[in-house]
């Protein structure tokens, strides 16, 4: 036996030994998690605690000697936490399907593979499924760094009593997918309106002859392109290639390379407990001069930073608007009780959509980076 073969045998024996220890430790962790699950079920508490998960990940990252890269540590723990949640109680996650949409892939990368992911044909169905408690959680796209808000998602918060539990940012890289690799033969390009808009420059330059047709999702577009064959293409995640038997005719076709979508994890009940980083609010203002300014001044006086303020038309009431606001602070804390009361008195209607931790930035393939 050569020296290197002997060393290899020694190393593998040590790895086996460490794996045994890891197995024991993972089982002990699982058993403790089950106990937490029992306590939660006795007090009707929610299984998914994103702030605690962020705390676990950040603490380990700070303690890590660094041989294992941060991204790997986070990816491994994503699955440990996913399994831990499942041991407490299997969780169904509704998402805008079918399989392979950006929402699905972002949800998998954030929540891990031990969740029961359940596709919904429309965003409306995701909200309905969560609000009617047919799913424990839902994943929805909220806004894109190039195209702005997904108006439908904002509007659906008005229709359904669902709450925000977590957010995540996912890098979006689009591909043109078709059964046939010849760009000149493309007559129709299908995709979700957001994806079509994010690639509009590329489409104009590279397939000017093609008609663009919106679909409910990028994966639905891929299925359509596959059904129609030659002459049809779809825009979506390159991974749709395997699911729908298509070719990736062009990669990275979004008009700007740094293309990110912010997704939200929603649930049927509000979150409670430990301190979170930000709060989302939905409100309407009285129809009088300075109504919005009074709200903004109140937050400014408290030293609270706004990270988003967007108005949407109030359906059925022409030229009236509803505001969606993100505040960089956990307004559910007791110290903000008076601020919330004051805010509510300044609004016509006001709903706290949730307080939650600042989300990680996901780069695909399970490698993640936490935002600062
Ligand atoms: O601390 C909890 O509340 C737990 O349920 C434990 C645990 C974990 O495995 O660390 C599992 C699920 C939660 O989302 C957060 C953390």
From TrEMBL:
SMART domains, per database record: CM_2
Keyword Amino-acid biosynthesis: yes
Main subcellular localisation: cytoplasm
Name this polypeptide is given: Bifunctional chorismate mutase/prephenate dehydratase
One GO molecular-function entry: chorismate mutase activity
Biological process terms in GO annotation: chorismate metabolic process; L-phenylalanine biosynthetic process
Entry keywords, A to Z: Amino-acid biosynthesis, Aromatic amino acid biosynthesis, Coiled coil, Cytoplasm, Isomerase, Lyase, Multifunctional enzyme, Phenylalanine biosynthesis
Subcellular localization(s) per the UniProt record: Cytoplasm
Gene3D superfamilies, per database record: 3.30.70.260, Chorismate mutase, Periplasmic binding protein-like II
Keyword Nucleotide-binding belongs to the record: no
Segments forming a coiled coil: 1-35
Site for Essential for prephenate dehydratase activity, residues: 261
Annotated source species: Desulfomicrobium apsheronum
Described purpose of this protein according to its UniProt entry: Catalyzes the Claisen rearrangement of chorismate to prephenate and the decarboxylation/dehydration of prephenate to phenylpyruvate.
Enzyme Commission numbers on file: 4.2.1.51, 5.4.99.5
Known catalytic reactions: chorismate = prephenate; prephenate + H(+) = 3-phenylpyruvate + CO2 + H2O
PANTHER family, alphabetized: PREPHENATE DEHYDRATASE P PROTEIN, PREPHENATE DEHYDRATASE-RELATED
Domain Prephenate dehydratase: 92-268
Chorismate mutase domain span: 2-92
An annotated GO cellular component: cytoplasm
């Amino acid at each position: 036996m050569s020296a290197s073969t002997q060393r290899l045998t020694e190393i593998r024996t040590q790895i086996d030994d460490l794996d045994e220890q890891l197995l024991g430790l993972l089982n002990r962790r699982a058993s403790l998690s089950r106990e937490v699950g029992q306590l939660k079920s006795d007090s009707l508490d929610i299984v998914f605690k994103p702030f605690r998960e962020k705390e676990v990940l950040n603490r380990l990252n700070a303690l890590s000697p660094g041989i294992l890269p941060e991204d790997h540590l986070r990816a491994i723990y994503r699955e440990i936490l996913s399994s831990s949640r499942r041991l407490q109680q299997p969780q169904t996650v509704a998402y805008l399907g079918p399989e392979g949409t950006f929402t699905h892939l972002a949800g998998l990368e954030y929540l891990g593979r031990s969740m029961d992911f359940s596709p919904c044909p429309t965003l409306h169905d995701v909200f309905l499924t969560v609000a009617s408690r047919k799913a424990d959680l839902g994943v929805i796209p909220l806004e894109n760094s190039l195209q702005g808000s997904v108006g439908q998602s904002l509007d659906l918060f008005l229709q359904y009593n669902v709450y925000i539990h977590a957010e995540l940012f996912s890098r979006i890289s689009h591909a043109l997918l078709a059964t046939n690799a010849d760009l000149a033969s493309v007559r129709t390009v299908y995709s979700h309106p957001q994806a079509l808009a994010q690639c509009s420059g590329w489409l104009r330059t590279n397939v000017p002859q093609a008609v663009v047709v919106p679909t409910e999702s990028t994966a639905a577009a891929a299925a359509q392109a596959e059904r129609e064959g030659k002459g049809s293409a779809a825009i979506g995640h390159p991974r749709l290639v395997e699911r729908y038997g298509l070719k990736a005719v062009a990669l990275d076709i979004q008009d700007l390379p740094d293309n990110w979508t912010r997704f939200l994890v929603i649930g049927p009940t509000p979150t409670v407990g430990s301190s979170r980083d930000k709060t989302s609010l939905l409100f309407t203002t009285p129809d009088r001069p300075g109504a919005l300014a009074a709200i903004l001044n109140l937050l400014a006086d408290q030293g609270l930073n706004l990270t988003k303020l967007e108005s949407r038309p109030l359906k059925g009431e022409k030229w009236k608007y509803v505001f969606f606001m993100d505040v960089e602070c956990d307004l559910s804390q007791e110290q903000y009780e008076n601020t919330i009361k004051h805010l509510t008195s300044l609004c016509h209607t006001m709903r706290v959509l949730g307080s939650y931790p600042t989300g990680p930035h996901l780069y695909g393939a399970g490698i993640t980076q936490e935002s600062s």
